[in-house]
Amino acid sequence: MRPDDWNLTHDLDAFLRRASDFLASRPALHTVPLTVLENLRDRGVNVYGEEAPVFGVLERGGAVEAVSLHTPPYWINLTSLTGEQADALAARLASAGHRLPGVTADRATADAFAAAWKRHTGAGADLWKEQRLYRLDELTVPQPVPEGAPRIATATATDRARLMSWYEEFGESIGERQLQDAGALADARIAHGGALFWETPDGTPVSLAVVTPEVAGQVRVTTVYTPAPLRGRGYAGAATAEISRAARAAGAREVLLFTDLANPTSNGLYQRIGYRPVADFTVHRFEE
Predict the structure, then answer these.
(1) Exposed/middle/buried for 271, CB within 10 Å: 0-12, 13-18, 19+?
(2) How far apart are CA 229 and CA 84, in angstroms?
(3) What is the torsional sign of CA 270, 272, 274, 279?
(4) Could you read off the pLDDT of 215-268 as tens digits, one per residue?
(5) For 279, phi and psi rounded to 5 degrees?
(6) CA angle (57, 62, 67) in 5-degree steps
(7) What is the model's pTM?
(8) Residues 257, 219: Cα–Cα separation, whole Å
(9) What are phi and psi of 22, to 5 degrees?
(10) 3-class SS at 135?
């Protein structure tokens, strides 16, 4: 395989024409590129940053075999690749002068690409995070259900401010600096009804669960956050179960989420709710 077998482009529409059917054929495994592309299409190609995204398609014999998606300043996202495909992509990107902060993909693909990127660029690569993708099977509401009720976040100034604050706190709690504007994130989630608060009986929000818009029949729970002083009371489980139920009721065929494998508490919680493992993913960070 030659590096030139990978076609690179900045043209979102051209990329979607070639890659959409391939990505939709395995919506669970392709959940991240599907939702990222939906954001680019709905909110503009600079929603993640000023630098233009780079899209890659590996197509042979008229069939798409794999795709890559890089939205600077984030790491590159890859569909499943063989070692040969990963090496060819790394060579293609390196020869074109692209700079990558890291890679995320299923474990075998990310490991292969990180090794290839190191060979072709000399960049250091370290394993930063190990994740597990889960799919909702039979929903089970964790017991006992805490007092209170769910409420979808609205466009009020109070809800928007709380969402912004909790997005930032969530990023700090998992060791990820928030690169997107918190206000834009809050507005996007409010617009599609994708942010849910669990509130105590007096109407005080105590936990948050967020879900992406539906695309290709799937949605993904992306943020579950409870402020530290309020944890251990069942709020996160109640919020997650409710937003998962609502997504199913709205017609989503698949409800997905990622967990950090270093956090046994969240992995245990989601399995009790009814989420079952699909595949393991890793994130590698690159250093020049």
Answers:
(1) middle
(2) 49
(3) positive
(4) 999 999 999 999 999 999 999 999 999 999 999 999 999 999 999 999 999 999
(5) -165, 160
(6) 15
(7) 0.93
(8) 9
(9) -65, -45
(10) strand
